[in-house]
Amino acid sequence: MQNQSLNGLVSAKEGAFVKRKPTRARIGVFGVGYFKYWGQFDGLLDDLLKKQAVFIDKIEAQHDVEIVDFGLVDDVTKAYELVPKLNAANLDLIFCDMLTYATSSTFGVIIKSIDTPIVLVALQPDKAMNYSQASTYLQLYNDDICALPEFAGVAVRMGKKVPQMIIGTLYDDPAADAEISEYCRIAAVLHDLKTARIGHIGHPIEAMLDMHSDSTMLTAHFGAHIVQCEAHEIVSQYQQATEAEIDAVKERILDFFDTPDPVSDPISEKLRDSDLHIAAQAAVALEKFIKAKKLDGLAYYYDGPDNSDTRVVMSNLIVGNSLLQGAGFPMCGESDLKTCIAMLIMERLGIGGSFAEFHPVDFKEDFVLVGHDGPHNIAIAEGQPVLRSLKKYHGKPGFGAGVEFKIKEGPITMLSISSTYEGKMKFIIAEGESIAGPIPPTGNTNTRGFFKPDVRTFLKRWIQAGPTHHFALGVGHHAETIQKIADYLKIESVIING
């Protein structure tokens, strides 16, 4: 099973963390056309193949993906010959390049036989024909959309959904380029979901029933393998950490985080040297553990006897988790595997994905605080993240350093992955805004989240959809992209609209 573990980190640092090597999705491309044209219009076939080459060059120039070019399908025999090649290529996504009109026999058996997502791409070379000098040749050269209805109709007749499609021009079309980029990012998500290794330690805190997961069903729905781990594996790494390793991580932490004086919360203090040392030592242990187990993420919750190394370590992973999340490894407290996968989806889309739940509502300014104690994605922080020493972790054992920041101001997207009575997965998605303003100085993350039409109505609609109380929080508006991922995974989804 492939994975992007710490072995795959790139060297460029972003503050205190080093980003993981980006996922390289594997995308197939095949063009379609109509064989009868080639003997009628000399040179048309060559011109269409050049269009396909331009499309492939466009993808490769703008995205770090692996392209497999399957050439041109222009009759039913070639369509049947292509099916086993597509199935054997281990693709994450397929672009069908609509080069000119093509009969649906070039597509019918493909859509029937392939489970890999297929996107129909209709990018004509000219923004408009020169009608005074138009010819049948030029019309066929620009006939990219002509067969889209036919292909859609045959997909339905084959018992499949109508494929997603991109319509535009081959040159100078930012909207089309943005859609190509979206599908390349979706391919990266699909690639990593089916190859990911997610560590799991312990059980959901206080038996939070909404968060329980069947590891086998997570593999069934997403492809990811859940690696059952033990707390002592991290504790052993903690005990073996050297002072040189700890000092190096301390330096990374202090270079990246602010450590201000306490403000209003009596359980918070200025970061203590002892808490910094424990947090750094735990971060050393956590990074070594993730690397040794070849994990792409971790969901954990584990207590231990008073004053034991187990309790000290497992209650002080917050800073190390936050560094790893910023590097692209979702780390999820309270042993919430479903939210860990939601965070992985957001991270691979390039939009962050921080661990979150709802905090108090501000009925005066009509927003709700969105955040959590514990691990967070510091790569999407607004301003410099803060570290405070906390005398206690509310609702959990232990004490130590807490991470405090808010998400970047601007558009945000939320994704909750819940499970239904029937045992199926469900995506609950919403978009909102992270707005400027102060947050509570409690050593936790909090973002002022504004949602339409108003906070009361939004919360009722969100909750009525049956989410878990945790969700992943990312930057930008990406609800429709995430819903496409749900569709490709054959998972029910709902977008909570304003």
From TrEMBL:
Gene3D superfamilies: 3.40.50.10940. GO terms for molecular function: L-arabinose isomerase activity; L-fucose isomerase activity; metal ion binding. This is L-fucose/L-arabinose isomerase family protein. Residues 398-493 form the L-fucose isomerase C-terminal domain. GO terms for cellular component: cytosol. CDD domains: L-fuc_L-ara-isomerases (cd00578). InterPro entries: AraA_N_sf, Fuc/Ara_isomerase_C, Fuc_isomerase_C, Fucose_isomerase_N/cen_sf, Lara_isomerase. One of its GO terms (biological process) is L-arabinose catabolic process to D-xylulose 5-phosphate. Keywords: Arabinose catabolism, Carbohydrate metabolism, Isomerase, Manganese, Metal-binding.
